[in-house]
Amino acid sequence: MTDFEWYLDFVDKDYKPSPDEMIVVFKAKPAPGFSIEDIAGRIASESSIGTWTTLATLKPHIRELMAKAYVVREDGLIKVAYKLDLFELGSLPQLFSSVLGNIFGMKAIKGLKVLDIKFPREYVESFKGPQFGIKGVRDILKVYDRPLLATVAKPKVGHTTEEYAQIAYEIAVGGMDFVKDDENLTSQKFNRFEKRLAAVMKMIEKAEKETGERKGYLVNVTAPPKELEKRIKLVADYGNKFIMVDILAAGPGVWQYTRDVADEYKLAIHAHRAFHAAFTRPKDHGVAFYVIAKLARLVGVDHIHIGTNVGKMQADLIELKDTQRVITEDVFKPRPDDPIKEPQDWYGRKPVFPVASGGLHPGILPQLLDFMGMDILIQVGGGVTGHPDGVIAGGKAVRQAIEAYKQGIPLDEYAKEHKEHKELARALEKWGYVRPA
Ligand code: CAP
Ligand code: MG
Fold first, then answer.
1. Is the shortest distance between the CB of 436 and ligand 1 below 6 Å?
2. What is the mean pLDDT of each run of 10 residues along the chain (437 residues)?
3. What pLDDT shows up at residue 279?
């Protein structure tokens, strides 16, 4: 260490964090020539009060705010404790700028992954959390005895509004609870937002009358904030109870703003996570999706995509289970053999509906339900709109698969026993039990 540096002052292995501090868990790799302590100090410094050199302006009261790297392990595991005064309460963008900020670019650090953030009570209570949560969303739809079901009208984009509305009708009348926009469908010229909303809502009402079931439209309102607010207001005017937003593509500020506007109009939020894998997927750099899921519960969305054990998107099963647990349990306790994750009390913030999506079809739903349980929202896109006999048959096949599972009957047996349920048999003929890649 050169004598103008004070990075190691931010390392204190004897430090015992208090429950009212924020804890951030990192996995870090030093660049050649640096030790793990060197980089632990840099992480704690740059994410709290420090810079590369000692300062004439450092006052004792500012020194009090120095973050402390108190776990510094040779394998790269680092835990840092932060005094709550370092943060602006109730601000997601400020959290990003501090503990998810400059540290990722420091020259001395070869790789850095944020694996967990433990939020203390005062911080948790400065955010709204979900407005509806699992129970609130079930109450809107009056569905209590099975997973909720959604379908994206594939192809992802390209349909005219009229074509889209027709598919939406078929999705809803076939038995799905939600029609869902795709993440990249917003307001392209062939399918403008306002026109689409009007057309789909008509179809939702028609399907509700015909089926006697409640239906919802997860309509993608993602846009810059002024336009987003206009779209949300319009959704409320149509009497729909749901909006969908690409929380990461929109950015932390717009994500949080969406929560505030949704509060005003009493709308539940479906959070799509497109863009996450750009920084969650590398093992040695970025931010774990687990952290994003915790932020989603903190800020307050009602559904969030977390992946599946059987679908087309990459997933680590232990991580997937922990993610599901942390967004649904009142108090998260890490597995006994887990050195990484911290416990998290949500102080009454409601549970978020985990969304399983990506490559799902009837044949693999039993394996999905075995792993994730019934309190999930299942999105089946291609697996409904790709049914050999069309979209309505696709929805029916999904409902039949769920029914078979609930009765504990293997799908092929159920399809044989119930000749009237030919839709499931036809889905199994096309896809069998394949796990798409
Ligand atoms: C699924 C999907 C979702 C992905 C996102 C898609 O369609 O609509 O966006 O599930 O991944 O466009 O791929 P299919 P994740 O049902 O036709 O596969 O849920 O992991 O965030
Ligand atoms: Mg999609």
1. no
2. 92 98 98 98 98 95 98 98 98 98 97 98 98 98 98 97 98 98 98 98 98 98 98 98 98 98 98 98 97 98 97 92 98 97 98 98 98 98 98 98 98 94 97 96
3. 98
CATH of 10-124, one of 3.40.50.720, 3.20.20.140, 3.30.70.150, 3.30.70.270: 3.30.70.150
Nearest CA to ligand 1 atom 11: 358
Q: Which residue, chain included where needed, has tokens 């503990």?
A: 99
394 lines ligand 1 (CB under 6 A): no
Structure tokens at 436: 């798409």
Q: Which of 29, 154, 202, 418 is catalytic?
A: 154
Domains 10-124 and 133-431 share a fold: no
Ligand 1 pocket check: which of 357, 365, 384 to mutate, most ligand atoms within 8 Å of Cβ? 357
CATH number for 133-431: choose from 3.20.20.110, 3.20.20.370, 3.40.50.261, 3.40.50.880. Answer: 3.20.20.110
Token reading at 66 = 């120095």
Ligand at minimal distance from the CA of 380 is 1
Cα of 359 vs centre of ligand 1, distance in Å, is 7
Measured in whole angstroms, the distance separating CA 332 from the mean position of its chain's CA atoms is 17
* Domain locations along the chain: 10-124, 133-431
What is the pLDDT at residue 2? 86
Residue 384 makes CB contacts below 8 A (sequence gap 6+) with 151, 171, 174, 176, 391, 394, 395, 397, 398
Q: Single out the catalytic residue among 159, 270, 272, 294.
A: 272
Distance of CA 21 to the CA centre of its chain: 25
Residue closest via CA to ligand 1's atom 19 equals 357
pLDDT of residue 181: 98
Ligand 1 pocket residue status of 360, Cβ below 6 Å: yes
154 tagged catalytic? yes
The predicted structure's pLDDT at residue 286: 98
Strand partners, 69: 11, 80
